[in-house]
Amino acid sequence: MRFTLRSLPKLPAMKSILLLVFCGMSVTTFSQRLSGYAAFGMGSSIEDNIPGCSNQNRLRYIGSMTIYYRITGRYSFGAEAIGSGPLNLFNKSACDVTNPDNSLTLSSSNQRAGTILLHNKMLLFSYKEMEPYIDFGVGINTFYYSEPDKGAGSLKKTSLVFSPEFGVDIYKFRFACKMIIGGKTPNFRGTDANENRPVRLESMKAQQVYLTIGYQLFRI
User: Fold this and answer.
1) Considering Cα of 79, then 83, then 89, then 95, what sign does the dihedral take?
2) pTM (predicted TM-score)
């Protein structure tokens, strides 16, 4: 005999209970798909050595906000906004170099950057409150250099970048290793009006690698 709600004409209370259970299951199935994280960390700029600079500063800080939308139990898509820059510790230097002809070569090392990424995240497995994952992001990175010469304003260079990431979520915390691959710094040619000498800034490739700690701000 086929069982349907119509087979319970004399049990309106049971119909209501079954409908409530069905709606509850539907809400549970489609809820908690959206989550947001804030993360901070430290890392390094992977870049060329600057000639004449023996104390080059490559330390960096990073701060980010990420939103994920869960497609299935294992796969999620997301978007991330990142701000990063040089972390000045241990008396290391950015290393501007005065050349023999009295021209000034500004340091291309370790510049401020802003990054926007789209993410594809895959959960590897889930054990209690521990969820290791891998993530691959693609987007744009912009390096900034402020006032290479008076009146020149802020220089910027935008590049396509890729961002592999491996991490683990433990309860509401996230521990991750992230790379940003493909960035380039801006270049500049000008003259220092105060000292009447040429000033230049060379473009260079600068990858970034970070260790971060994040916290889940919401899950709805």
Assistant:
1) positive
2) 0.81
